[in-house]
Amino acid sequence: MNNRCHMHRRHFLTTATLGLPLLGGTTLFAQDLMKPAKPAQLAPELVKEFVRVGHNNLPEVQRMLKEQPGLLNASWDVGGGDFETALEGAGHVGDREIAEYLIGQGARANIFVLTMLGRTTEVKALLAAFPNLLRSKGPHGLTLLHHATRGGEPAKELLEHISQLGLTETKLAMP
Question: Which of 67, 147, 152, 165 could form a cystine bridge with 115, CB 3.0-4.6 A?
Fold first, then answer.
């Protein structure tokens, strides 16, 4: 009987708070009580530095990532809707070693980085499934054509494919 009463009390306390405004105008949900607190945001200057070194400094990328693993997918707000990760920085300058290292650590690859890496099968499949990606903009408005050019020999087939699909610009205007 005691256990049953405890279960009813817990159910009441859990459901009774749903949707009730608390002080300050917020609403408490039972699931919020069980969530672990999110870590603090990364300092923007730290993210900016990680993205900067992601363009060409593998030892520094490795050091910073070891000290702060949360940097792996951190995105720096360059401004005007232009965001960039360290992986994307490596992608648009053609630094294959940094790109492969970051992907190996679990960084989220996108069509731009895959194009630079010459991942022909994956990029062609994405373009076939989503043809409008051909004219999508990567960081700084750089296109797939730019990334294929930066990929060198491994991306040569993609460079030809993208050109045959009609993409001629290496950079598209930012909004």
Answer: 147
110 in Cβ contact with 144 (< 8 Å) = no
Gap between the terminal Cα atoms of the chain: 66
In sequence order, what are the beta bridge partners of 27?
Answer: 21
**pTM over 0.70, yes/no:** yes
Cα 171 to Cα 138: distance, rounded to the nearest angstrom: 9
With beta carbons less than 8 A apart as the criterion, state whether 86 and 54 touch. yes
Distance CA 19, CA 17 (A): 6
What's the chain look like in SS3?
CHHHHHHHHHHHHHHHCCCCECHHHCECCHHHHHCCCCCCCCCHHHHHHHHHHCCCCHHHHHHHHHHCHHHCCCCEEEECCEEECHHHHHHHHCCHHHHHHHHHCCCCCCHHHHHHCCCHHHHHHHHHHCHHHHHCCCHHHECHHHHHHHCCHHHHHHHHHHHHCCCCCCECCCC
Q: How far is the C-alpha of 94 from the C-alpha of 113, rounded, in Å? A: 9
